[in-house]
Amino acid sequence: MVSIVQDRASTVTTSDISKDTLPSQDRFRDLIDSERAASRGGSYTVASIRIELKDGLVKEQIPLRSFEVKNETVQEVPWEKLREKTTMEPSKDGIELKSSPTQEQTQAAIEQGKGRGVAGRAAPEDLSTNPKEYLMGHQNGDYAFQFLPQLDFIGRVEGFQVTVLTSDEADRSEITNAIDAKVRPNTSVHVVPGGLDVWTEDSMVMTSKGEVVVPNSPSAALGSETALGEIISREQVKRWYNVALDPNLSGAALNQELSKYPLVSDIGGQGVVDKRGNRESKASFALAAGLPVSQAQSYVEGGNLLVGKLANGETYGIIGADSVVISKAIFEKQEGRSLTEKDAVERIAKDYGIDPSRMTVVEQPGQFHIDMAISPVTNGKLLVNDARAAFALQERLIKEDYEKAKPTDPAKVQAWEEKGKQITKALDELKEKTERRALLEDKAVSQLEAAGLSVVRVPGVMDRVDPARSISAAAAAGNFLNSEKGTNAKGEQFVVFLGGDPRVEQRVAETVGKSFPEVERIYFLDRSASEKSVGMKGGVSCRVNVIPE
Question: Which of 24, 180, 284, 401 could pair with 472 as two cysteines, CB 3.0-4.6 Å apart?
Answer without folding.
Answer: 401
